[in-house]
Design goal:
By secondary structure, this protein is mainly alpha-helical. The chain has one domain. The protein is built from ten helices and no strands. Helix 1 packs antiparallel against helix 4, helix 1 packs parallel to helix 5 and helix 2 runs antiparallel to helix 4. The longest helix is centred in the first third of the chain and has 25 residues. The termini are far apart.
Length: about 190
Amino acid sequence: MDYIITALISYLFGSIPFGYIFTKIFLKKDIRDVGSGNIGATNVLRTGNKKLGYLTLILDILKAVIPVIYVKLYYPDLIFISALCAFLGHLFPVWLKFDGGKGVATFVGILISINIYYALIFGIIWVLTFIISKYSSLSSLIASISIPIYILILGNGNFIFFAIMFVLIFYTHRENIKRLINKEETKSKIY
C-alpha cells in the first residue's frame, strides 16, 4: 500500500503545471501557444516575464523536492519510486492530457533531494555548457548524462535509475536534438 500511496502523491505533486497556471493567471495566455509550446520555465521566460519564468523554475524544482525529501525521511526504501513518479507527473500531467514539460527542473529537484553533490555536478556542467553553447537544451542533455557517467565511474549511486532519467530527458528533447543537428535550435537567454 505504501508503494501505491507514495507513487500517487509523488505523481500528483510532479504534475502541477506551474508554467501553465502562472501564464494563464498573470498573462492571460496559454503557454502552450508561446515559443516551443512547452510548459516549463525556459518557455515561460520566452513570454518576456522573467519573474514568472524564475518562479516556474523554482516551483518545478520544489515539486520534486517536497515529496522526495519526505519519502527519504520516512520511507527511504521508496525514494526512487517517489522520484520517478514526481518526474513522470511533470512529463505527463493528468491535468493537461498527459502533455507536460521536459523535466529538467524537476530532475534538478530530484538531484537535490537524493544527493546534493549530484545537483552541484549537474549545475556546474549545465552552466559551463551554456556559457560555451548558449543552448539550454544542449546544456540540459549534457548535464543530465553527466550524472549516470559520474555514478558509473565512482560506483556510488543508483546507475540504472539515473540512466533511465537521462533516457526520459533525451526523449523529451528529441525535437531539440533534431534542431541542434540541423543548426536550427534557438539560443537562449536566461538573464
